[in-house]
Design a protein that fits this description.
Elements: H1 2-9, H2 11-14, E1 19-21, E2 38-41, H3 50-59, E3 65-69, H4 74-80, H5 84-95, E4 100-103, H6 106-114, E5 123-125, H7 133-136, E6 147-151, H8 160-169, E7 176-180, H9 186-193, E8 199-203, H10 208-213, E9 217-220, H11 229-236, E10 240-243, E11 258-259, H12 265-277, H13 285-289, H14 293-316, E12 324-326
Parallel strand pairs: 1-12, 2-3, 2-12, 3-4, 4-5, 6-7, 6-9, 7-8, 9-10, 10-11
Helix pairs in contact: 8-9, 8-12
Length: about 325
């Protein structure tokens, strides 16, 4: 939702088209006609939702349809999908209904093509983004690092159980672990943390910038992750970033993130001890001094939408661009 909000409100996105948002109630099976030059789906692909996507395609045969895949990755399939052939068929059949499929990270895009889910010519890669200006404005944290931050939903996906186990087993007398977020796994994670006074559950923060300001290093032991907005926020803020080297988290390594050897408690214990004994938080400078990710995001969308509109004009002699509908 934060990415959608950025699309709707960012001035750089407005130069491309007029964007509007249509919310879809869970369980809905059909949509009325949508007045737009391009329709972009941010829906979760499922067998239950497939009839609605098919109806959307049938109702708008000449309107370019784009799907942004926020959820599914190679590690997601490995961890969650039992009937892998059936799931692969779902992705192939659903994605074929769209003119373009957008991956939110290079690693995810490579998997989508390699797995046969998407034809290479139908794939675009547009890394997710939000407004990072407030994160860039934060003061850099003092060294050595003192507070490790884990930020995100308390869900099995995020791997915070691995992080807590590693933290408790490591020799880290002067480090604290602050966990920002809420979710179904809160009770389980609190039980795992026990009475360790160094581990604090900070609850859900409505101010992501404030949470980032309070930590020195961000740990992301996700079991799967299409991209990871927290990663670009951490690097923009100049915080150290340690990630599990899977899925979209791989994209952040060239920008300053460090990856653990594997996503085991032992590997994370080693990584956490290195943070302490190195005497400094790791540097997230490359993303702060490099090109604006927000500009790259808007440029990528401009190029995609412009290309689709040119194709539509050529095929239907349609010259007018009114906007892009976001579903």
């Amino acid at each position: 939702m934060r990415v959608l909000d950025h699309i709707l409100t960012a001035p750089e996105m407005a130069r491309t088209a007029q964007h509007s948002l249509i919310g879809i109630d869970r369980g809905r099976v059909s949509l009325g006609p949508i007045e737009a030059d391009v329709i972009v789906s941010h829906l979760s692909v499922s067998w239950r939702g497939a009839p609605m996507v098919a109806a959307l395609r049938a109702r708008h045969p000449r309107t370019p349809l784009v799907h942004v895949e926020h959820s599914y990755t190679e590690a997601f399939v490995a961890a969650n999908v039992v009937h892998k052939r059936r799931f692969a068929a779902l992705l192939r059949l659903t994605y074929r209904l769209f003119d373009r499929v957008v991956a939110v990270s290079h690693a995810q895009g490579q998997w989508l093509v390699r797995s046969g889910a998407v034809r290479a010519r139908a794939l675009s890669i547009i890394p997710s983004c939000v407004d990072l200006s407030a994160f860039r404005a934060l003061d850099r944290t003092a060294t050595p690092a003192r507070i490790i931050g884990a930020i995100g939903r308390l869900d099995r996906q995020k791997g915070f159980d691995t992080l807590i186990t590693a933290f408790r087993s490591a020799n880290l007398p002067s480090l604290q672990l602050h966990i920002y977020g809420d979710g179904a796994e809160r009770g389980t994670l609190q039980a795992l943390a026990g009475d360790d006074p160094r581990i604090k559950f900070m609850g859900f923060s409505r101010e992501p910038v404030a949470a980032m300001a309070a930590v020195d290093v961000v740990a992301m032991p996700s079991n799967w992750e299409a991209y990871g907005l927290v990663a670009i926020e951490a690097l923009a803020a100049g915080r150290g970033l340690v990630v599990n080297g899977i899925d979209g988290l791989i994209d952040h390594i060239p920008n300053g993130a460090r990856s653990v050897a594997d996503n085991s408690p032992e590997a994370w214990r080693t990584a956490l001890e290195e943070i302490l004994w190195s005497g400094a938080a790791m540097d997230g400078a490359p993303i702060r001094s490099g090109p604006s990710l927000e500009t790259a995001f808007s440029d990528n969308w401009h190029n995609l939408l412009s290309g689709l509109m040119v194709g539509r004009s050529n095929s239907a002699s349609h010259q007018k661009q009114e906007g892009a509908g976001l579903t």
